[in-house]
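User: Structure please.
Assistant: Input sequence and predicted structure:
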Amino acid sequence: MQKVIGIRFKPAGKIYYFDPTNLQLEKGDQAVVETVRGMEFGDVVTNVKEVSEEELIAPVKPVIRKATNADRKVYEQNKVKAAEALVICEKKVAEHNLTMKLIDAEYTFDKSKIIFYFTADGRVDFRELVKDLASVFKIRIELRQIGVRDETKLFESLGPCGRPICCSKWLGDFNPVSIKMAKDQNLSLNPGKISGICGRLLCCLKFEHETYKEVLREMPPVGAYVKTPDGKGNVEKISVMNEKVTVRLDGQEAVFKTYGPNDVKVVKYTASKQHDKEELSEDELKELKRLEEEFNKNN
């Protein structure tokens, strides 16, 4: 086991672990550390804790120092300079007629490098742009292409739920999301209802999926022929949140009754109804598949 402390370099960025050495650090502090990008200024987001060697990516570098007021001043100055650099870079992109959209700029804490983030539909040959920028700023230049999810993560926006989007507030990593998660949660498969403002499947489909899967294991599927205290019938609907099963009982009249999963016993499994597929056009089904493939790309 090794003592580590978690540090973030962006409000909802990934947490990286460092060796606190003998420094007195706790959650809420700020620190200066050395990373592969150079010296960085970050927020301490965990208290000192012990982590197994298997959970860490070696080597774990030591924290250089707890941030001082002077360090905070440098950090704020770097943000101002980065905003100015972004304006200059935008002019250079236009001069080189490159089909790329600049999103953000960032100086490393020690000003050894400036990173420009951009989006583009394909690969962009920006070698001449880099040379031009290097002659202006006199430091190392890095251009990093990001996807639409990463672009959305950089800005604060409201999601379909009316709350700030998770990726810009607290979600450090993007987890794979599938259409099956929407099906298991009995959600409409309309692409407009299960995609976020980034145009990809909603990240929050993942949050409750394990709970839904656990409950669904104890419940008969839609379409199953079951035995109930009132007779036999077919499962017409299941409510995971309420843990209830609606059954259409056999008989000349359509009688629907609701039971708990322990009150029904499966007699025969039959083909379950396709979830909302009859409501979707071929184009909408293709769009759903595209959303899933795009979301999970590079995960």
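The longest strand covers residues 231-239.
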